[in-house]
Design brief:
By secondary structure, the protein is an alpha+beta fold. The chain has four helices and seven strands; from the N terminus they run ααβαββββββα. The chain has a single domain (about 5-130), classed as SH3 type barrels. A hairpin with a 5-residue loop joins strand 5 (about 70-80) and strand 6. The longest helix is centred in the C-terminal third of the chain and has 24 residues, at about 105-130.
Length: about 130
């Protein structure tokens, strides 16, 4: 069966890099103030809170990212199967909010810090012009 929604057709036909770029989530208020940006690309190890849907309120670390499906899995967010076993639930990144970033990657940390200093410089320029 083929989808009739043009947006979904574009997503399914897009490249791996474009799908990976769309795997972003909003930052919490504290992180937003700290880093001066609204959203960030999700990585395995980030701590997120589910903000919408059946699993609203659940918090856990991102345990997997499936760019082909455009979904993530979170530790502790599972469903029970008919045979009694559990399996992770795949959740859309738009339904989660990042509460703690995994900064073990030096490049990611440098990029986030660089964005923060740029925002501070802009704020200082605005204060000087007033």
């Amino acid at each position: 069966m083929k989808t009739t929604k043009p947006k979904l057709q574009r997503i399914s036909q897009s490249s791996f890099a474009m799908r990976a770029k769309s795997m972003t989530a909003h930052l919490s208020k504290d992180l937003r103030d700290q880093y001066g940006r609204r959203s960030v690309g999700l990585r395995k190890g980030d701590t997120v809170t589910v903000t919408r849907g059946d699993y609203k309120g659940h918090e856990g670390k991102v345990s997997g990212i499936m760019t082909s499906e455009g979904r993530i899995t979170i530790e502790g967010v599972t469903m029970k199967k008919m045979d009694g076993t559990t399996k992770p639930v795949m959740i859309s990144p738009s339904k989660v909010m990042v509460t703690k970033l995994d900064l073990s990657d030096k490049d990611r940390k440098r990029r986030l810090e660089g964005k923060k200093s740029k925002v501070k410089d802009d704020d200082e320029k605005e204060k000087e012009s007033d």
